[in-house]
Design brief:
405 residues, alpha/beta, VC0802-like, Rossmann fold, 2 domains, nine-stranded mixed beta sheet, six-stranded mixed beta sheet, 19% strand
């Protein structure tokens, strides 16, 4: 019964003179994500984007897709009507009857525990982009509400209704809709630039990557592979699955997989076991820095959470980050593990992240690693490692894998 989808964004509206740029990127992103879904067209009207759908549009698929696009605050399936009160009244009642019938049928198919409460109350909420429309919002609320009461067995509840009915008076047409589907919000991917995301295969780094998508960043993924894992490609499939899942939020992605075995051997020979974790990660940032130059990235993303593990104490993080020549963004730094897991479950990376995988940072380190790193001491130890040529070879000979949905 729906003819349109009304897409709303909120943070973009605060961007002042830069707002057209953010809107343009969001429109481009929506067009790219919906390229395999049938619909008629879409256009921008006021502070929203209108998608014109048809009977061949896969509503469930388009709903799942829009929910994952950063920059979208919420969206509604709507029906178009002329800006005529009599027609708005009739169309509202028609839609309500169809909607209630559909909801009742859904409830009958649900178990007792999953059934929703019956819809008995409603509220009309008029919005007027077109201020020249003959009636003001409170008048529209009153007149449409009165018509619904006369023609249906529903009561008005303006404080906590079972159903909000939105009458959206646009500049050209009126849109009528009920349910709101919440989106990710934030900013459209691509509005703040490229970042190098160090993805480990654990729970934290995919969540960190997603959090930076919400801030408009496009992630280029870099994974350091421990070749001690049995099998030529054992474990890499897991990383590719994680990146593919994250493609749902940022689209087509690049993944660099760096064989870390040669660097590990150098570090094991020259660095005491208590400092190896710190030096491992410093070398990773050095390699990632060269990839950042190649990709014109503006910084790094990590899954660090303060004091969650030994390498993430304040002293150790300071010593690790010291080698980086670009800003480092750790969006999980103040979160506890359960908060991170909650997000991982929400974005469907958790079940992939918990698959068995030996992280290369855990290879041949001390039982009790250093928690208060001495940067001066570590710099002296690193002087014994000559790896610049190795890094250049890695960058020259490593091409990214392109991953998409």
């Amino acid at each position: 019964m729906y003819t349109h989808i009304i897409v709303h964004y909120d943070e973009i509206t605060l961007k002042g003179g830069n707002r057209p740029f953010f809107e343009r990127v969001l429109v481009d992103n929506i067009r790219e994500f919906l390229k395999d879904i049938k619909y008629d067209n879409f256009y921008k009207e006021g502070g929203k984007i209108i998608l014109n759908i048809n009977k061949n549009t896969d509503l469930e698929k388009i709903k799942k897709t829009l929910k994952n696009i950063p920059g979208i605050s919420n969206f509604n399936f709507a029906v178009l009507e002329e800006k005529n009160l009599e027609k708005i009244n009739k169309k509202t009642v028609e839609l309500l009857k169809n909607y209630l019938k559909t909801e009742n049928e859904k409830n009958l198919r649900q178990t007792q525990d999953d059934r929703k409460n019956e819809i008995k109350t409603f509220k009309i909420e008029a919005r007027r982009a077109d201020k020249k429309f003959a009636l003001k919002s409170p008048e529209i609320n009153a007149k449409v509400g009165e018509y619904v009461i006369e023609n249906m067995k529903l009561k008005v509840d303006v404080h906590s209704p079972d159903l909000d009915v939105i009458i959206d008076i646009g500049y050209k047409q009126c849109y009528i809709y009920f349910e709101k589907t919440i989106g990710i919000g934030g900013l459209p991917v691509g509005t703040t630039g490229n970042l190098i995301s160090l993805i480990s295969g654990g729970i934290d780094s995919p969540v960190a990557s997603f959090m930076m998508n919400k801030r408009g960043a496009k992630n280029i993924f870099v994974h350091f592979k421990n070749k001690t894992i049995a099998g030529q490609n054992d474990g890499q499939d897991k990383i590719e699955k994680l990146v593919k899942q994250l493609c749902k939020f940022q689209g087509k992605s690049k993944l660099y997989v760096i064989a870390f075995e040669k660097f590990q051997k150098k570090i094991i020979v020259n660095i005491p076991s208590k400092n190896r974790m710190i030096v491992y990660r410093r070398i990773m940032f050095k390699i990632a820095g060269e990839i950042a130059k190649k990709e014109k990235a503006k910084g790094f993303v990590t899954g660090d959470s303060l004091s969650q593990v030994a390498s993430q104490t304040i002293d150790n993080i300071s010593a690790i980050y010291n080698i980086a020549k670009l800003p480092i963004f750790p969006p999980l730094i103040g979160m506890n593990k359960q908060e991170i897991i909650n997000i991982a479950e929400k974005i469907d990376t958790y079940n992939i992240s918990i698959l068995p995988y030996q992280d290369c940072c855990s290879f041949l380190i001390a039982i009790h690693p250093e928690t208060r790193a001495n940067l001066e001491e570590i710099l002296k130890q690193e002087n014994n490692i000559k790896i610049d040529r190795m890094i250049n070879d890695v960058i020259l000979n490593n091409k990214p894998t392109i991953i998409e949905l």
